[in-house]
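In the design runs reported in the main text, the only information available to the sequence generator was the tokenized backbone. The following block is the verbatim input for one such run; it is reproduced so that readers can re-run the procedure and compare outputs position by position.
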């Protein structure tokens, strides 16, 4: 590259560092089939930043015409680059030579809103790190044939979500020196795309680079950019995770990663609380015993004083199966107490709390939940639950919705993308419902189980999950386990007149304990409607 102006740019970078500020550059790669007019617009968006970049690096596989007139900020790197990732490698080397802290990848067709770099810079002024983190922000996606755009207001950093969906590389700032190391390491294969680079940088538990969210729109992208290249993204994940993990392309450009099961597989105690309602119980039990392929289970039916003859006869009959136990709880209904009591009789390493109105759809549902639950640092794992009409009932719980907690994406059609395919990806969640929840018995016991004193019926599962998070564990939602939930058919709705007083009392306890009336869920966003469960 030309040395013209390099000393001046180095001086600018040095001056920023001396003031405790970080310096930023931008990289854009122009492929053979890219429209130079579109590329020019992207470069001009970088030139128009309120926080000026030290350099705008431009790479291409050929000579370029029609770019901005000579400008100290624009540096055309002359070495031919046949791919965007090769151009990024060259830009990182040039940035490191100039002492620049960050490179912001800018795709042809995308644009930087005027204050993007200022947003990144302001974050680094406010947050001090021993090592520079990867930064990412929200983005706007232009709608086809319209001047309008839709906002992708993203959650905070979630490593498990990043393995399911690339929600960062389209709007990020990469720390130069840590990123460049992954291109010059001799013992590892160089990354094939920015997504893979971020995974390689952030995955190692001890040496990984931290990832931080900037609460600002930092990129404007083209229509459909977020859900393209599913096969390439799957390959990027496969390159970044252990070889024995199963990786495939999911819907809407997502990735389906299945961790290997440990050997021997852990025993799971499935707890079903019930009182009569034989038609529901029978469907649930037969799904567990005869339609579930997981080989090491025990089924504990916690009977809450069933009275109907048919139910009692059925309980006696299924006890002939050596996998089944029935424990009796002949007291007033207290969901927390019933499950805690049954958990005390469990011999499994993991507990699966399962409502008696759950219907098994897929034989591997429990296996998929175990794959996540056995990972280090995982608390509770929840499934995707559908109403009988195949709309979403549960796809994770978001704290703060309705000033309490709400089921994310409730009512969405099963196969709809919804809000950037959130129902289709394995990801973290503040909480998951105990209608189908898997948790290690040691974790359940460590936090005292469900709160049977103050939260006998409502919010006890969310409370449990939040207690697990307080212990440093992460809760996981997985759509790879999907079941039908005939919600509240067995005990009725909380808003029924006979239950309302109890519900309001438990709601008040939950709100006070967790600040649910003010808190913003890490997987929701301050700009999303707190009264909507569909991320509007």
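Verbatim output:
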């Amino acid at each position: 590259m030309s040395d013209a102006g390099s000393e001046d740019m180095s001086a600018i970078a040095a001056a920023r560092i001396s003031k405790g500020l970080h310096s930023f550059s931008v990289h854009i790669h122009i492929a053979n089939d890219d429209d130079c007019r579109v590329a020019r617009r992207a470069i001009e968006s970088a030139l128009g930043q309120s926080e000026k970049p030290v350099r705008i690096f431009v790479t291409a596989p050929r000579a370029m015409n029609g770019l901005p007139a000579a400008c100290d900020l624009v540096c055309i790197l002359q070495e031919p680059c046949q791919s965007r990732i090769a151009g990024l490698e060259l830009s990182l080397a040039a940035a490191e030579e100039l002492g620049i802290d960050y490179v912001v990848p800018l795709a042809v067709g995308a644009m930087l809103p005027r204050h993007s770099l200022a947003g990144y810079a302001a974050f680094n002024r406010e947050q001090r790190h021993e090592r520079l983190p990867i930064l990412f922000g929200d983005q706007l996606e232009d709608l086809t044939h319209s001047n309008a755009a839709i906002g992708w207001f993203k959650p905070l950093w979630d490593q498990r979500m990043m393995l399911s969906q690339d929600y960062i590389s389209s709007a990020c700032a990469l720390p130069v020196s840590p990123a460049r190391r992954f291109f010059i390491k001799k013992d590892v294969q160089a990354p094939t795309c920015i997504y893979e680079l971020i995974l390689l940088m952030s995955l190692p538990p001890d040496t990984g680079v931290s990832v931080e969210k900037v609460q600002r729109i930092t990129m404007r992208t083209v229509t459909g950019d977020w859900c393209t290249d599913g096969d390439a993204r799957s390959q990027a994940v496969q390159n970044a995770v252990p070889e024995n993990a199963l990786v495939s392309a999911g819907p809407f450009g997502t990735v389906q990663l299945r961790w290997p099961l440990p050997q021997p597989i852990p025993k799971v105690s499935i707890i079903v609380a019930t009182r009569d309602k034989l038609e529901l119980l029978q469907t649930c039990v037969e799904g567990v015993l005869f339609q579930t392929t997981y080989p090491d289970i025990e089924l504990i039916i916690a009977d809450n004083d069933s009275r109907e003859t048919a139910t009692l006869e059925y309980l006696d009959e299924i006890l002939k199966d050596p996998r089944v136990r029935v424990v009796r709880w002949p007291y007033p209904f207290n969901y927390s107490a019933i499950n805690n009591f049954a958990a005390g009789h469990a011999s499994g390493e993991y507990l699966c709390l399962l409502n008696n109105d759950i219907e098994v759809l897929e034989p591997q549902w429990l296996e998929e939940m175990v794959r996540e639950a056995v990972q280090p640092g995982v608390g509770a794992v929840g499934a995707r639950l559908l109403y009988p009409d195949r709309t979403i009932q549960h796809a994770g719980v978001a704290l703060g919705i309705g000033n309490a907690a709400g089921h994310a994406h409730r009512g969405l059609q099963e196969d709809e993308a919804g809000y950037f395919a959130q129902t289709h990806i394995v990801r973290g969640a503040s909480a998951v419902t105990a209608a189908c929840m898997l948790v290690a018995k040691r974790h359940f016991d460590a936090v005292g189980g469900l709160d049977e004193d103050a939260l006998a019926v409502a919010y006890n599962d969310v409370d449990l999950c939040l207690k697990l998070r307080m212990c440093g564990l992460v809760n996981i939602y997985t759509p790879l386990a999907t079941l039908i939930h005939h919600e509240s058919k067995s005990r009725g709705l909380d808003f029924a007149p006979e239950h309302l007083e109890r519900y309001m009392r438990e709601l008040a306890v939950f709100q006070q304990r967790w600040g649910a009336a003010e808190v913003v869920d890490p997987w929701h966003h301050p700009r999303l409607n707190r009264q909507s469960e569909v991320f509007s």
